[in-house]
Amino acid sequence: MKAVVIEQYGGKDQLHEKELESPSPEKNQVVVESYATSINPIDWKLREGYLKEMLPFNFPIVLGWDISGVVKEVGEDVKDFKVGDRVFARPATTANGTYAEEVVVDDHLLARIPDSISFEEAASVPLVGLTAWQCLIDFADLQKGEKVLIHAGAGGVGSFAIQLAKYKGAFVATTASGKNEEYLKSIGADLVINYREQDFSEVVEEYDVVLDTMGGDIQDKSFSVLRGNGRLVSIVGEPDKNKAKEMGVRSGNVWLEPNGEQLKEIASLMDRGEIKASIGHRFPFGEEGIREAHALSESHHARGKIVILFDK
Q: Are 73 and 24 in contact, with CB atoms under 8 Å apart?
């Protein structure tokens, strides 16, 4: 099978197409024939070597942690899936990622793709959808009527989190550039703060939840917009515990855990039209397409998800 791999850390020119052995499923695993995958910041951060201590993989490394496709082969004791099923997943974090024509996935991490959802829509969802779910629902326990601020709403996690928060009945504010205001309101944002013209900490106050996707000064200033007993949840780093205690808020850093059951719930929300896939860019599978996709992701100017399509 064809895969795009890295054999050393570095820039996007380290991404190379290579022939690898097709995988075989072990017990409670399936092989998925890939129809689409997507790009996430973890991909190029790992490529650059920023995560090598946290994820000490051996080369060659196949990046990518979103997959949609069709079950090609099932291993022993797989009961809920059969050859031909349309499925999607955020597979376990291994060196055998999803920039490949075939991917092995543990069966408990899989979910079926509803008939109403395309492969490219399904591929855009697992990592960002599960991240938003685990931040807003598992950690923050967001409730109807609460106010939530989501930083960088036009990004992959942000655009999914806005829709999930609206589904939960929250009032949703988000930061973004002015050009994305109309788009963000169309997916459920009640208030869009143009970060180029306004300081969010001077616009909102007494919020219940902040979802931090940026870190640094933005994370630090986010404490000031929370009410007592508010929740600050970050996907980029642990907020200052002393400051959280001083401000009387609960804070934490969420590192996504792949979860097939949650993905099934997300699939149901998509099937009912409560949440829509947010695809901003498409590239073909291959060395050149993935290099271009990485460059776009690294620019921080992608709107919605960057999807990679296999030639089907």
A: yes
Cα–Cα distance, 206 to 225 (Å, whole number): 6
Alpha helices, DSSP H only, in 134-259?
A: 156-167, 181-186, 216-222, 241-247
**Predicted local distance difference test score (pLDDT) of residue 62:** 98
Tell me, what amino acid is at 205? E
DSSP H or E stretch at residue 164: helix 156-167
Task: Report in angstroms the alpha-carbon separations of 175 from 25, 180, 195, 204, 250.
Answer: 43, 10, 6, 11, 22
pTM of structure: 0.95
Distance CA 229, CA 227 (A): 6
CA distances from residue 172 to 141, 144, 187, 193 in whole angstroms, order as listed: 15, 11, 11, 11
Which tens digits make up the pLDDT trace of 13-27?
999 999 999 999 999
Q: How many C-beta atoms surround the C-beta of residue 3 within 10 A?
A: 24
- How many CA atoms within 13 Å lie on the side-chain side of 174? 31
Residue 197 CB neighbour total at 10 angstroms: 8
Please give the Cα distance from 77 to 14 (Å, whole number).
Answer: 38
Structure tokens that stand for 8 in this block: 């050393």
Q: Is 152:158 a contact under the CB 8 Å cutoff?
A: yes
d(CA 238, CA 250): 12
Q: Which amino acid is at 246?
A: E
Dihedral sign of CA atoms 41, 42, 44, 48 in order: positive
**Planar angle of CA 187, 190, 192, nearest 5 degrees:** 90
